Amino acid sequence: MTVKLDYWRLLRRFREIRSYEQSLSTGQVVLYRELLDYANSIYALDKQFHMMNDALVSLTGLTLSGLRKAREALVNYQLIEYTPGKRNKEAPVYKLCATYVTGVEEHNWDVNSASTGTQTGTQLGHKQGHNQGHGSLTVPNRTITIKPSRKSAARTYDEQSEPYVHAKKLFEAIQVNDPGAKEPNLQHWANDMRLLNEADKRDWETITAVTSWCQQDSFWKANILSAKKLRQKFPQLLAKMNSAGGRNKPYQNNDVDWDNQPETMW
Q1: What CA–CA distance (Å, rounded) separates 216 from 214?
Q2: 143 has which bridge partners?
Q3: In DSSP terms, which residues pair with 89 in a beta bridge?
Q4: Residue 98 contacts residue 3 (beta carbons within 8 Å)
Q5: What local confidence, expressed as pLDDT, does residue 21 receive?
Q6: Are 221 and 237 in contact (CB under 8 A)?
Q7: What is the C-alpha to C-alpha distance for residues 153 and 183, in angstroms, rounded to an integer?
Q8: Phi and psi (nearest 5°) for 92?
Q9: Which residues contact 259 (CB under 8 A, 6 or more apart)?
Q10: How large is the angle between the packed helices 162-177 and 204-214, nearest 10 degrees?
Q11: 100 in Cβ contact with 4 (< 8 Å)
Q12: In which element (H, E) is residue 41 found?
């Protein structure tokens, strides 16, 4: 049975994958987007379609070798299917994989009944800067699919969980430098710590070392005042710490009995 795929759901799911689940190179991201847009423009989201290597090289800016590597990665990640072509006879064959759960009902919004001033699907296209387009990026009937507007349930972290513990330790280190610092929403900080670990692939030991070091550095202790900022500046902090040889200098908070802290604390 052929599953009808939706452009916008494929695009949203791809953004989730690259942001939270799989580290993709720029070449892999560009290649997938070009294949997705082209398939949509010829109404082949759920079908096989041909596309020449030369066309993809031109659209993506990749070399032929880079194209092959990016394509192999997308196949391994089960984002696309690929069948080699025949030299000078037939272009390679591609097919997009269903990356989201199909068969789940969504709210259909008929743009014809929408109030004036609303941007329709046909007004949405490539972001500015693309030199070559693929025509319309929407389905031929004028109905687009939009999920019902609702807030995602906020994740709650246990106080003994790694993200929460590290968020709390960052705040305690900040308090040593500024006793009057206002206590933040540690649940929000814990979420930033989780993303630093899961999405950015930073292990807890390294997070601990960088957190400790930055609150002793004369410049960074005045600038790293939240878990969000710690995550944003983490690559710079890690590089600076390593160049200064600071990894093996744990932060010393004399107000805390370090010998009696649970092992999960640091």
Answers
A1: 5
A2: 110
A3: none
A4: yes
A5: 87
A6: no
A7: 23
A8: -55, 155
A9: none
A10: 10
A11: no
A12: helix 26-41
